[in-house]
Specification:
alpha+beta, 13 strands, disordered N terminus
């Protein structure tokens, strides 16, 4: 359920979201929790049925209505590992959710840095509280997701769960790896590559603008992934690896992992009132 607040007042955002969150994160593989571990057995041959299963997973999530969410973005750069972790809930019927992000401390571990950032994900917009960079602690920053070079697939430090699933609508060369048990549930593991442009053309109207923007923000449209579906076809876990065209060293990539559970539980999201949205300039310095 989304409780509509009085929205408005576009924030004058000097878009340095990446300096405070995800842009500049580098990653060489999937989450250390094992979505694409090097010691896994090679996947089977790609099949049409495997691709159909993965492409339909977004529809299965909408039927499930809502879910609890855990997110992770990880980087390895110059021998240093950096991670941003998040948790919260998401309503797939309204494309809205709320996450609490733990930023890394100087050693790169999440939870030991500054105060957590609260993010509200809504159709076409991202709201952030405790953003830092000169924004008062009691104010929200509002950003139009379609204005971001990556459609907010990684800029905010967490991939919108519906966008992560809709991105799989462009899945190709998908192989069924095998059956596994994850978080106490039997899941089917698929591996393949999804195409951002194809996903944008097949996505729902709610997600399409963000994916259209994202098509321009990466070195390649090809996004390798590992996806884990339960017996109802719902996405339980997905790990996606993105490559940047600009603003990062050559070959830089970000690994985003989204985990879903507790389907059907109520998720209440209240959008910030207009008076609570920051209208000033955001400092460009990283927090």
């Amino acid at each position: 359920m989304v409780v509509q607040g009085r929205r408005g007042g576009a924030a004058a955002v000097a878009m340095a979201c990446g300096t405070g969150l995800a842009v500049g994160l580098l990653a060489t593989g999937c989450s250390s929790e094992g979505a694409a571990a090097d010691d896994q057995e090679p996947p089977g041959r790609p099949t049409a049925a495997a691709g159909e299963d993965v492409r339909a997973s977004a529809d299965a999530l909408v039927r499930a209505r809502s879910a609890a969410v855990r997110t992770a973005m990880e980087t390895v750069s110059g021998g240093t590992r950096v991670a941003i972790r998040g948790s919260g809930g998401y309503d797939f019927t309204t494309s809205s959710g709320q996450l609490r992000l733990l930023l890394p401390d100087p050693a790169g571990e999440p939870g030991g840095g500054r105060e957590p950032i609260t993010e509200i994900l809504a159709p076409g917009a991202l709201f952030m509280k405790n953003r830092g960079a000169g924004v008062p602690a009691d104010k929200w920053v509002r950003v139009e997701t379609a204005s971001l070079a990556d459609g907010n697939l990684v800029t905010g430090g967490a991939t919108d769960p519906l966008a992560a699933a809709e991105l799989l609508r462009g899945a190709r060369d998908v192989a069924y790896v095998g059956e596994e048990r994850w978080d106490g549930v039997v899941v089917r593991h698929y591996r393949g590559t999804t195409d951002i442009g194809a996903a944008a053309r097949a996505a729902s109207p709610r997600t399409r603008p963000a994916l259209v923007a994202a098509e321009k923000g990466f070195t390649t449209d090809a996004v390798p992934f590992d996806a884990y579906l339960d017996e109802a076809g719902r996405l339980r876990k997905v790990c996606q690896r993105f490559h940047f065209a600009n603003g990062a060293p050559a070959g830089a990539s970000v690994t985003s992992t989204t985990e879903l559970s507790g389907f059907g539980a109520g998720v209440a999201v209240r959008l910030p009132d207009r008076r609570d949205i920051y209208a000033g300039k955001i400092a460009s310095a990283a927090p």
